[in-house]
Amino acid sequence: MTSFVEVLGLKKDFAVRRGIWQRQVGAVHAVDDVNFQLDRGKTLGLVGESGCGKTTVARMVVQLLRPTQGQVLFKGKDLVSMKGSELREIRPKIQMIFQDPYASLNPRMTVGTLIEEPLIEHTDMSRSDRHERVLELTQVVGLDPSSVERYPHEFSGGQRQRIGVARALALQPELLVCDEPVSALDLSIQAQIINLLEDIQDKFNLTYLFISHDLGIIRHICDTVAVMYLGKIVETGSAQEVYGDPQHPYTEALLASVPVANPTDRHQRKRIILSGEIPSSTMPPSGCNFHTRCPLAEQQCSETSPELRRLSDGRLVACHLV
Amino acid sequence: MSKELLLQVQGLTTRFNSGRGVVHAVNDIDFSLSVGDVLCVVGESGCGKTVTMLSLLGLLPTNNAVRSAERILFNGRDILSMSEEEMRKVRGRDIGMVFQDPMTSLNPVLTIGRQLMEAMEVHQGLSFREARDRSIDLLRTVGIADPEQRMSDYPHQFSGGMRQRVMIAMALSCDPILLIADEPTTALDVTVQAQILGLVIELMRKREMGLIWITHDLGVVAELADWVAVMYAGHIVEYATVEQIFAAPRHPYTIGLLDSMPSLEGGRSERLSVIPGQPPNLIFPSDGCPFADRCSYAFDKCSTALPSLMEIGEDRQVACWWDVELDMEQSVEDR
């Protein structure tokens, strides 16, 4: 059986150009050999710190960016090798929700037009059918029907994100790529949007690739988790296992860094404070990417890069010491 | 309390005149802070956290902001009666400040060393050599490697976390007795945030200082605070010790905030509880409780009368009618 979504050997290098001739002087290795698969109706969380390549992966899955190398298989078909009309036909099935609800909606379009736009572009529905569909979508995402006449600036961040969700749902997608959909929102509004995303997932049997730097949200919404560091996946497995018993030292440190909302035992809590910050992805360290900050690093870690290996419980970890 | 009172604020109110009307940004708030204590001010964007601190420091824009207060005492001195000249001496020397975005609060065309030394030369009259030596010490204290070399670097050569360390070093440079930090770790990654929090906890242990830390992250509050002030729509709605806030929150908004936080343990099965609706418009505040529209406990009194902060126990205040009513009913029953 083929997976619903499978990503194989995905790589993306961005050229670094300098001088008046814009000669290439180096490359940012934003994503380096990323593999994962995702079953229908499930949610995979990509988690990591800024600059680890999460968003680049998302953009390659949606084909907003062409990978340097690798394949993105959607229901067994490789999107990377598709062109023109073939790709256009499949695009409605894969939609994206963006991080910034302030920047991702055209301020000159009414909410109705914004939600209708993909229908005009990709379907031959009649005007009245489209109008009906738009009203139906506003209802699904919990917007007042009167909002179709209004403009994005009249809405708060949370409601704008609802507009973004309605727009993404317009073409009845099967895969939704959510790139930090709630990071720009306040805590009390975040919960509203997360609940909405869960509701529509159940209702329309959606599959999510969910990107966030917030470990609490990832834990809440995801079935499986992939932890990224400097362009590579360092650990992936079921959310329960990864959070309950992290194996990679980076995963462990990342989880230990999250402030816990319980002040009673704060002085006894075990802390792993990583020194330094993420190295530049223009010149990633030799061997294991993480060895410069890893509290457990040994000689071999700076020499050879560890492969993702499967552990007995089924999860994959890229570390020499596990 | 036996500890020395560092800051006492009573009846602080700030209004902004905007094109669309008067914005009631901060409404009659009271709080205080003792030496050695950490006060965390929590709330969502636009609730008046930052404006409160800017009002304290006299850093509001002069063209459209109006501040009034019954009393602001800092270290025994009356801030309200200080001239701009005197206030300038307090800021930077007695009160250190760290802002959210280290990218925009450092001057890009001056070296880190120059910017660090400036405050010490101005406020403490140190010579070039003394200021330089102290700057190097400070950079070392906040965990910057090779401080001698880094002194001649420019801000763009530092990463976000390093810049925030420099900001902290700068805020500490004149040995302040009060440090005000406005969302200093919000723009940083969690592993770097953990470094900064560790550094601050260490500093609080070593120095005789009070700390006001503004944040919207309840996790950070739990790690850092002794005292917590929860703000909503320009009001302090609950004020208590950190243990009380997390163990037994009393204001419905605090309860809602704590419940809507996804935890690292909870999985998909539990649904996040939600505070319905949105924060109110600060231009046309209602007569009643600002939270009434979103509150599941609200009753008729809530929309007509504004509850003020009321003592509900030792060191504990809450601004809510519901809680008070409940208490009265209980005490009637007890009798």
Describe this structure in words.
The complex is a heterodimer of chains A (322) and B (335). Chain A has helices at 54-61, 84-90, 111-122, 127-140, 157-169, 187-204, 215-221, 239-244, 249-257, and strands at 5-18, 23-38, 43-47, 69-74, 77-78, 94-97, 175-179, 207-212, 224-229, 232-238, 309-310, 316-317. Chain A is an alpha/beta fold and 322 residues long. Chain A has an 8-stranded mixed beta sheet with strand order 6-7-8-3-9-10-12-11, with helices on both faces. In chain A, a hairpin with a 4-residue loop joins strand 1 and strand 2. In chain A, helix 3 crosses helix 4, helix 3 runs parallel beside helix 5 and helix 5 packs parallel to helix 6. The model of chain A has no long low-confidence stretch (mean pLDDT 91). Chain B has 2 domains: 5-94 and 174-334, Rossmann fold (3-Layer(aba) Sandwich), CATH 3.40.50.300; 103-173, no CATH class. Chain B has helices at residues 49-57, 84-90, 102-105, 112-124, 128-141, 147-150, 160-172, 190-206, 218-224, 242-247, 252-259, 321-334; strands at residues 5-18, 21-34, 38-42, 65-68, 71-74, 77-78, 95-98, 178-182, 210-215, 227-232, 235-241, 310-313, 316-318. In chain B, the strands form 2 sheets. Chain B has an 8-stranded mixed beta sheet, sandwiched between helices. In chain B, strands 1, 2, 4, 5 and 6 form a 5-stranded antiparallel beta sheet that branches. Chain B starts with a strand and ends with a helix. The mean pLDDT of chain B is 88.
Break the fold down into its secondary structure elements and pairings.
The complex is a heterodimer of chains A (322) and B (335).
Chain A: E1 5-18, E2 23-38, E3 43-47, H1 54-61, E4 69-74, E5 77-78, H2 84-90, E6 94-97, H3 111-122, H4 127-140, H5 157-169, E7 175-179, H6 187-204, E8 207-212, H7 215-221, E9 224-229, E10 232-238, H8 239-244, H9 249-257, E11 309-310, E12 316-317
Parallel strand pairs in A: 3-8, 3-9, 6-7, 7-8
Antiparallel strand pairs in A: 1-2, 1-4, 4-5, 9-10, 10-12, 11-12
Helix pairs in contact in A: 3-4, 3-5, 4-5, 5-6
Chain B: E1 5-18, E2 21-34, E3 38-42, H1 49-57, E4 65-68, E5 71-74, E6 77-78, H2 84-90, E7 95-98, H3 102-105, H4 112-124, H5 128-141, H6 147-150, H7 160-172, E8 178-182, H8 190-206, E9 210-215, H9 218-224, E10 227-232, E11 235-241, H10 242-247, H11 252-259, E12 310-313, E13 316-318, H12 321-334
Parallel strand pairs in B: 3-9, 3-10, 7-8, 8-9
Antiparallel strand pairs in B: 1-2, 1-4, 1-5, 5-6, 10-11, 11-13, 12-13
Helix pairs in contact in B: 4-5, 5-7
